[in-house]
Amino acid sequence: MDDPESRVTEEVRQTADAIGRMEIRGAATIADAAARALRDQAEASAAETPDALRAELRAAARVLHDTRPTAVSLPNALRYVLLNADGTTAEDVRAAVATSVAEFRDRLENAQSDLGRVGANRLRDGDTVMTHCHSTDVLACVEAAVEQGKELSAIVKETRPRMQGHITARELDEMGVDVTLIVDSAARRYLNDVNHVLVGADSIAADGSVINKIGTSGLAVNARDRGTPIVCAAQTIKLHPDTLTGHTVDIEMRDESEVIDDETAADIGDPTVLNPAFDVTPPRYVDAIVTERGQYPPESIVTLMRELFGEATVEPWVE
Ligand SMILES: O=C(COP(=O)(O)O)[C@H](O)[C@H](O)COP(=O)(O)O
Hints:
Layout: H1 10-20, H2 27-44, H3 50-65, H4 73-83, H5 90-122, E1 128-131, H6 136-147, E2 153-157, H7 164-175, E3 178-182, H8 187-190, E4 196-199, E5 203-204, E6 210-213, H9 216-226, E7 230-233, H10 262-267, E8 278-281, E9 288-291, E10 294-296, H11 301-309
Parallel strand pairs: 1-2, 1-4, 2-3, 4-7, 7-9
Antiparallel strand pairs: 5-6, 6-8, 9-10
């Protein structure tokens, strides 16, 4: 049998490239794109036996998996689809993959709107929120509150170096929220003017730590110091099962060119440039984690993780 790796489709490779380059970004959006890519791999495959098709799907999953290491929604999506790729013929497996991808995407969408309704309960008419990066889970909370007739304002951190705050500003503006944009270092100055800090998550660890865009932990410490509640909006697909057994979450280091161009770097003596994409906020700085299952104090999230994943998980893309 030839190498299943060689039969990974161009479309799957393009999706993986787009995730790596951050054209597809944000934990929930990455999960959705990865699930769709597996469905497309199954549809395009010429495999004639279930084993050959499953080997091809595992190879495609590995290509998708090896793009960005921090958002656990990516492996959680791949696991969901691969563990449901059952069937005694290749056709059966293809159909099972299509069904599980559709189910997964429905769950993602429903989870986000359920979570949005929970998060919206925390927001009152006239409140101001501060945001960091761009999180579709956070925006679902704001959108649900706006739909309930609440008028909201937002102070949006631009989020260097990739400026995802600009996407947040545009989407909040489209919802009718009054938006003020600030540079990241101005956050502390304005924390007394906001009622809530709202952030998303790429992963949540078993101890309740929130792994999110770099700068979240500093923002949370400052918010605690100022007495401003900090809420993390995160669907349960952000729960990191490996942390139940003591593993830590990898923090992605990105290219220095996102921070400074070669010419400017040369001009200032070519310093070492570090560009971590995410950081870890300890649970003591987070007031609540809002999920589609309700709101949890961070320290109790482990109970939900055990309920959803048991004690151990498998990595079905490994040969
Ligand atoms: O940190 C980021 C995005 O980082 P990047 O831009 O590097 O992917 C977002 O806060 C989370 O992914 C949650 O997003 P969502 O709520 O949409 O899943």
